[in-house]
Amino acid sequence: PGLYLKNFTSKGGLREMIRVLVADDNKDFARQLQAYLEGQEDMEVVGVANEGREVLRLVQERQPDVLLLDLIMPVMDGISVLEQLSKERRSLSQEEASEYPKILVISAFGHEDAVRRASELGAQYILLKPFSLETLVARIREIANSSVGKGSAAPVGVFRDDPEKGGGVGGASVAEVDDAYLDAQITAVLH
Asked: pTM (2 decimals)?
C-alpha cells in the first residue's frame, strides 16, 4: 500500500518517481541507502547491486533514471562499469542512448584521475564519502531534474560533504575545483 500511495500527489494525480539503482559493495551501506531512499516520496529503488556485472545487468533490466555507483567494487569496479556503459551508449541512436541512467558516483576514493575519468565516461556528479543522506537525496533530485538528458555527459560536480563540519564544495565542475583544495580533500578522505 505504501508504494502505491507514494505514486500519487495529494490531488490524486500521478507523481513522477525517480527510479534509482544503488551499486555499492558494502551490503550494509547499500541497504541503508535503499531504506532511506525508499522513504522519499519521489524516489523508488529499482535494484541494489554489490558488484559491477550485476550493475550492468540491472541497468538493462530495470532502466533506472539515476545510478548511484561506487568506484570500488569486486569483480568489475565502477570505472569498468562506466567504460562499458559508455561503450554501449556510443553504439546506440541518440534516442536509445537517452534511456541510459544519469550517474552519481558515490565513493571514498576521490583521486583526481579517477574523478576525471568518471567524468569523461558520463558521470554527472561525484559525491565523496562520508556524506549526509540529505545531501545525497538533494544531488539525486538535482541530476534527475537537470536539463541534461539521461546518459549524457555533463560537467561533473564534485561534492565533499563532511557531516561533522557541516559543509562542502558543491556544483563546481572538475576544471573549476582548485587542485590544492581537491588534493587536501582527497587526503582527508583517505586518512
From this structure: 0.74
Q: Cell 554527472, residue?
A: 124
Where residue 9 falls (left for φ over 0; alpha for ψ -120 to 50; beta otherwise) is beta
157-160, strands of its sheet edge to edge: 43-49, 18-23, 66-69, 102-107, 123-128, 157-160
Phi, psi of 62 (to 5 degrees): -100, -15
Residues with Cβ within 8 Å of 63's Cβ and at least 6 positions away in sequence, in order, are 19, 46, 99, 101
**Rounded Cα gap, residues 65 and 153, in angstroms:** 14
Which tens digits make up the pLDDT trace of 84-132? 999 988 888 888 777 789 999 998 877 788 888 998 999 999 998 889 9
Grid coordinates belonging to 23: 551499486
